[in-house]
Design goal:
This protein is mainly α and 293 residues long. The protein has 8 helices and 3 strands; from the N terminus they run αααααααββαβ. A hairpin with a 2-residue loop joins strand 1 (229-240) and strand 2 (243-252).
Length: 293
Amino acid sequence: MLEPIKRGMGAAQAGLLTNAALALAKLAAGILGHSYALVADAIESTADVFSSLTVWGGLRISSRSPDEDYPFGYGKAEPLAAAVVSLMLLGAAIIIAVQAAGEIVTPHHLPAKFTLAVLVGVVVVKEVLFRKVFAVGVQVGSTAVKADAWHHRSDAITSAAAFVGISIAVVGGPGWEPADDWAALAAAGIIFFNGLRILRPAVGDLMDHAPDSILLKQIASAATSTAGVRAIEKLKVRKAGMGYLVDLHVQADPGISLQEAHILSGKVKSAVRQAVPSVQGAIIHMEPYAEVK
């Protein structure tokens, strides 16, 4: 599982560097161009920097081998990082909403036109980054990497909303200054929604939510197709970082010896891991087969 973790960490590092550069650019453009929507966008990008750091750290911890203190490994660090990222999104949304609401009732200058060009570049960069990071998250099966990708998409949405608000303010002229702030408020709502969207699967992984039925069927099929297996029951699977841990009861002929049962359990374990490479470990319980009449 080291290669998937390295790929996930690489995606997080790429996002970190990109977000740091964009945050500085948007903050400078927002201050000079009198655009709170752009400043709010910079705040969101700053949160992205810390989210990428969190994901990188979570993946690094999850790569550690099991030890006496954590016999099942450090895999839970990965969904925990995803949960932290989602909470950061929710926090950023609340901060932006509060600040935008205050700006709506506070007289200020019209945004400068050059801020529109900055936002177009930001949307393009962040959408490309979202697609690449999300693809890595799907390929390696990382909830944290996918959460980081959605953070990039939220930034793109914030920038797009800011573009609309600033455009309305620039075209409308004096009296339309708050359009920029209303756009920031709308973006905050979208960011909050995405934060909740990310939090749900992260909490599910932390609480050992069962994986999708397709993976369960693959594991069951691999076990039942092993020579000597008469039936299976009590299949339980939980996510551990980017992989899965399996607990399975296998029924075999009651006349076989303990040694034969042990060998059969090893064959079942090998068959399961060969069919589903993301299975990191499997506990096979051997039981005598009892024909149902």
